[in-house]
Amino acid sequence: MFFERFLQWKMLERRPITKYTFRQYRVLGKGGFGEVWACQVRATGMMYACKKLEKTHVKKRRGEAMALNEKQILEALDSRFVVSLGYAYETKHSLCMVLTMMSGGDLKFHIHNIGQPGLDKNRVRFYAAEVCCGIMHLHRKSIVYRDMKPENILLDDNGHIRISDLGLAVRLSEGSLVRGKVGTAGYMAPEVIGHKHYGLSVDWWGLGCLIYEMTAGKSPLRQKGEHPKAAEMERRIQHQPLEFGEKFGKSVKNLCSSLLNKDPSERLGCLASGGKDVQDHRFFRKINFRMLEAGLVEPPFKPDASTFKINH
C-alpha cells in the first residue's frame, strides 16, 4: 500500500507544472508587471501566492532580464526569512512564479493602518531581528537585496516575516561592487543616490530605515503626510542629519544612528563582523538568534485572520 502511494507521488512529481496544477482564488496585490493571486496546489491542498508577470508589460518595460534574475535568485535561496519559490511555469500571456503564501499583510499596512502609526518595541525588535537574519542569508549568497521597505516585508498567519520581491536584487561577483540608482525613493542609501559603487552596505541602510519607520510611524527624513520631490529627498538623505522623537529609546536610537550612518565604511553591518555586529547590538539583547533561526521564538503578534482572509 505504501509502495503504491509512493509510486503515485513520484508520478505526480514528474508531471509538468502548468496552470492546471493549481486552483486560483482572489488577487492579493498588484505591481508594475502584473498581479499576485492566491492559489492552491490541487494535488496537495497547499496554499501559495502566484506572482503573474504579464509578458506584454515585461517586454514593454524591458523587464525580461529582471524577471529571469528574480527567478534565478529565488531558486538559490533557502531561508525561513525570505520568500521561497515553490514552482515556476508560463502561460500564453504570463510568466508565473509560485511563492510562499504570506497572508498576514505587509509591514506598511501594520505600521500605518492599524491603530496609531508605528509599532510597539517588542514587535519592532522581533521583525528587525528576523529581517536581519534574512539579509544575512542573502549576503552569504553574495546577493544584495536593494529594495528594503515596509511593503516588501510580509507576515504569515503566525506573525513571522519574510522578505519579498527580489526583482531588484543582484548577485555580486567575488570582490566586485555594483553601481546603479536602484530602489525606492526615500529608502535608497546615500551611496546609491550618489552614483557610487556599492556592495552589501545598502541593505543595512535599508534595515535602519525600516526600524526607524516601525518605531516612529513615518519614514526617516520625511514628515508625516509630506511628499517631497525626489531631488529634495535625495538631498536630505545625503546631507540632512536624522531627528529622533520621543518614541525612540536610547538603544533603538543608537541602532538607527549606526545603521543610517551616511558613510558606508562606518555603518553598522559593514564592518569586519558584518551582520553579527548588528545582532550583537544591545537593542537585540532579548533575542536568542539561534532559536529565532530555528523557528522556535513565538512572534509577539498574530495577525487577525479575518482581516487578510483568502476567499476560496
UniProtKB/TrEMBL annotation:
GO molecular function, one term: rhodopsin kinase activity
Classification via CDD domains: STKc_GRK4_like
Active site: D147
This protein's UniProt keywords: ATP-binding, Kinase, Nucleotide-binding, Phosphoprotein, Serine/threonine-protein kinase, Transferase
Domain Protein kinase: from-to ranges: 22-284
Residues at which ATP binds: K51
EC number(s) per entry: 2.7.11.-
Domain of life, source organism: Eukaryota
Pfam families: Pkinase (PF00069)
Membership in a protein family: Belongs to the protein kinase superfamily. AGC Ser/Thr protein kinase family. GPRK subfamily.
The protein's name: G protein-coupled receptor kinase
Source organism: Pagothenia borchgrevinki
